[in-house]
Structures are given as C-alpha cells and as structure tokens.
Amino acid sequence: MIQKITRHAFTIITIAIVCILISANGLSNSNKIKVDSLSDRYKDLFHLGAAINQDIIFGKDVQSLNIVTSEFNSITPENSLKWLYLQPSPNKFNFIAADKYVALGIKNNMNIVGHALVWHNQLADFMKNTSSSAAFTNHVKNHIHTVVSRYKGKIDAWDVVNEAFKEDGSLRPSVFKKQMGENYIEDVFKLAETADPDADLIYNDYNLYKPAKRAGVLKMVKKLQDNGIKINAIGVQAHWRLKSPSLNEIEQMILDISAAGVDLMFTELDITVLPNPWELVGAEVTQNFSKFEGDPKMDPYPNGLPKEIEIQLAKRYKDIFKLFMKHQDKISRVTFWGVIDQYSWLNDWPIKGRTNYPLLFNREYQPKLAYKTLANLIEN
Ligand code: G3I
Fold first, then answer.
1. pTM for this prediction
2. 78, 163, 193, 310: which is the annotated catalytic residue?
3. Based on the domain organization, do 314 and 270 belong to the same domain?
4. Is 182 designated active site?
C-alpha cells in the first residue's frame, strides 16, 4: 500500500515538473517574440534614418553602429561627404570615408543620402580663395560631376544645395552666389541631374516653418520647375525645441511645401532641451556664444536628464510624429541628426561643452522614453 502511494506521488510530482518545464519553455519562447525595430514599425509610412559620424562609418563605435543597422533604414553622413573632406585641395579627392559610408549602406540595404554638394560651410579653403569666377565655377562642375558620378545608382538622394536662403527669404550672399551669380541653384541642380539622372535631388534648409524664409525657398522651387529643372524634394532640417516651432507652424509648412509639388523630407531632426535665452533659432553654425561657456545656468543637466524633462521630450516627439503620421502621404523620410546623445552636435552648439539630450538613445546606448513612445505609436 505504502509502495503504491509512493509510486502515485512520484508520478504526480513527475507530471508537475514536466508541466512546469513546458510552461516555462512556453514563457521563454514568448519572451523571444521578435520586437520590430523603429524603422520596421514605420516602414509603410516613411524611411526612418539617422545621421552617422566618422566613428560609426569606420566601425569604431560598434554600439552606435548596431543601433543604426537594427533601428534605421536610411543613413546620412553627418560630415564625411562635405566638400572640405572630399576635395580639400583642387582636384585632390579623398573618398576613403565616403566609400566606407556607401558600402555600409549597401551592405545593410539602406536608403543612402549624400550630404551636401553645395554649402558655404565646411567648404575647402581653396574655394573661398579662388578669385576667378570661371575657375570657381569649373571647380563646382568638377566636384559635382566627380562625386555624384562615383556613387551613381548607389546614393539614392543628394542634398544638392544646403542653406542658401536668409531668414527674409532672399538669397544668402554666399561665395557661390558671388562667383556663379543669382542662378547658381538652377545650375548646380542641372549638374547633379546630369551626373545621376535617377537620384532624388533635394534643397535642404532650416527654419522653413517661418513663412518669409519658406516663401523664398518655394519661389526658387517654382523657378526650377518652370524651367524644367529637376528638384524632387525640400529637406526640412528640424533642429527644434521643446516648445517651438508650434504644431500649427509645422503643419502649415508641410501643407505649403507639399502644395508646391515637391516631396518633403525631415532631414535633420533633433530637439534641444537646453536654455536658449537669446531667442536663437535655427542652425547657423557660425554664430559664436563663447561668453556663455561654463555658465551653469546654460547647462542645467550635466549629471542626467530630470524625469520631468525626459517626459516632456517624449511628448514633444510624440506630438511631432503624430503630425508626421497624419501627413505621411507627403513625407518620404524622417532622419534624426545623430544616434546617441553623447555625440550630438547640440552638446557644442550654440555653446560649447554642454550636456544635451536631443535624440532617442542615451549616453549608455539605451533607448530613451522618447524612443519607446514613438515605438508605441505604431503597433508591433
Ligand atoms: O575635422 C575636425 C577635426 O580634425 C578636429 O580634430 C575636430 C576638433 O574639434 O574638429 C573636427 O571638425 C569638426 C567637424 O564637425 C567634424 O567633426 C568641427 O569642429 C565641427 O564644427 C563640425 O561640426 C559639424 C557642423 O555641421 C559644421 O557645420 C557637426 O558635426 C554637424 O552635425 C553639423 O551638421 C550640420 C549639417 O551639415 C547642416 N545643417 C545643420 C547641421 C548642424 O549644424
């Protein structure tokens, strides 16, 4: 009898153990359900991209590289394809970083952006010192032809001209305007199209939520269109703040740009959380505010982002993305200007050496609340 009871108890215990093992296995399997990356979640709406720095391109910052290849489906080179680095002296090109960048995009089947062909900043010194207009124009022709042809069929979209307008909507008196004349934007778009007829051609700028500047840019778009010159998109740099621009201003901008018959790309999205006492807006990198360096009032979160600001940042991103989703038929790409907070340009602009938190990944390479909020906006 006792033997029978013992056998029974043994059988029951064995069954219980097996059940526990099966359910534990089931649980761990359910834990392994693949969670979609951010770009997978948004793939039916628009490309989701990140600007990548040289350390990511060369695989030195492996953790950021892993984030880029798993979370994003579009890349933009933060600096590596700018004139200064590609052609530092006349006809002496350096394609080492650019080739690596393009190879990375191809390997990971990403949308590859070229940034930027014509910009008054990060331009080689010899261009600033070229006195003859004919020689200057020849350098521009050579640069665009050489660079765009090299990556023909590989780079999907080019920022052909960057930041050519002033806040009042008039043409910036840049060295390009001075040397090549009022119609230089048309001329360089033609050059880019000739070098790669299939690439998307973008005009890229900041503060386009401001009506006067936007009007100037859209007048230029119309002129190109009227003259049969290809321009595919306006790239809206979105170096924004927690409170401004307003959602109404952003929405009006989306509507106006779309009505002009061009695609809209948010090419440089980040949100500063730091004080901006001069009502300074935009992204004009030459402004210098060194007198504020080291001022603790200007750098209030050196040891971490307070929870309430992290929540504000997440809400701001959520509100902006809800608007993007509403107008997804007009928007083909949204690119963050960087990967983790540590390496954002906004730690050094407009005041050097601050601790900013503008992106979706923190200094420990972990997704922030803003990331999770954007992921949750779209079902897995
Ligand atoms: O290459 C030098 C390096 O040799 C030197 O050791 C190092 C020391 O500081 O500086 C390096 O140059 C820096 C360069 O980035 C590359 O890292 C420059 O000082 C720095 O000013 C430059 O900043 C870039 C800025 O453009 C220049 O205008 C930022 O990283 C980049 O994020 C920013 O990107 C621009 C877009 O292209 C256009 N729209 C605005 C956006 C933000 O300003």
1. 0.91
2. 163
3. yes
4. no
